[in-house]
Amino acid sequence: MSHPLDVRSPRPLREGLRFPAPRVHGRAGVSFKPEHFAAIMEGRPFGGFFEVHAENYMGAGGPPHRMLTRLRETYPLSVHGVCLSIGGEGPLDPLHLARFAVLVERYEPALVSEHLAWSSHGDVFYNDLLPLPYTHKTLARVCDHIDAVQNAIGRTLLLENPSTYVRFGASQFSETEFLRAIVARTGCGLLLDVNNAFVSAANHGYDVSTYLSDFPLSAVGEIHLAGHRAQVDALGASVLIDSHDCAVLDAVWTLYAGIIAKAGPIPTLIEWDSALPAFEGLAREAAAAQRLLDSVAEDIAGVPHDAA
């Protein structure tokens, strides 16, 4: 008899891959939302990939898995964790990590990622991705946690740069130095969220172009683009919020175009998590990213744009 907390999933019924090989290089994708499932299945084929939040699919079955299985039969997936608490002081939750690993095995995603942040402490769980000080002690802990995740899933994890609203005076590294050290110690990759970089730079008063020029682009395996909004805090100061509830702003598109011109056609995801448009609206955002990716690919191949 299985243990009540058994997280094993059924093995594939046929030999080999359950799903088509996930090819996402040079593609633009979007966040998958169940509200869009019917439109995706009934509409014109989408040329990109879909990203899901891992924690929404940690049950054993039911409608979420039926939808995701049908989606994965046609499209590549990216699995994006939001609750592993990579930067937390305590050890990773072994049950949560086991469920995360089962999900990765079950759907064979092209990309797997998590955040440079913490979201739990002891038995307390927060509905946010919280910042951490960039110190030698924190570096060792984050690297230990990434090693544990990569051992559990048997593959490379991409770590996302955060959007932040406070900075720690105790920090001994810049954020880009900290990320570079993590990559060197663990062999993980990075997920560059351009919107997060823009939001953090605006909130802390430093130049985002300088930040991106020092970002270890050679380690980036995925890019995120999203919308943000300006708010006014209790002291009357303007602050940018990484809201994921609107279209990508022009300034972020400009930064993105410069990044892929330098680094190549890295798989790119449009994040949109609330105030959802119709799927056609998300697809238009992805198409804008795809045009930029295709232009970079053509430049690398030496193909004239009008001939491509």
Q: Tags for this entry?
A:
308 residues; TIM Barrel; two-stranded antiparallel sheet; 9 helices; globular; disordered N terminus
Write the layout of secondary structure elements.
Elements: E1 28-31, H1 37-42, E2 50-53, H2 63-72, E3 77-80, H3 94-107, E4 111-115, E5 118-121, E6 124-130, H4 136-153, E7 158-160, H5 175-186, E8 189-193, H6 194-204, H7 208-213, E9 220-226, E10 229-232, E11 238-241, H8 250-263, E12 268-271, H9 279-301
Parallel strand pairs: 1-2, 1-12, 2-3, 3-4, 4-7, 7-8, 8-9, 9-12
Antiparallel strand pairs: 5-6, 10-11
Helix pairs in contact: 4-5, 8-9
Overview of the molecule:
The protein is an alpha/beta fold. It is built from nine helices and twelve strands. The strands form three sheets. Strands 1-2-3-4-7-8-9-12 form an eight-stranded parallel barrel, surrounded by four helices. It has a two-stranded antiparallel ribbon with strand order 5-6. It has a two-stranded antiparallel ribbon with strand order 10-11. It is 37% helix and 18% strand. 38% of the residues are buried. A hairpin with a 5-residue loop joins strand 10 and strand 11. It is globular, with a radius of gyration of 19 Å. The protein has one domain: Alpha-Beta Barrel (TIM Barrel), CATH 3.20.20.150. Helix 4 packs across helix 5 and helix 8 runs parallel beside helix 9. The N terminus is likely disordered.
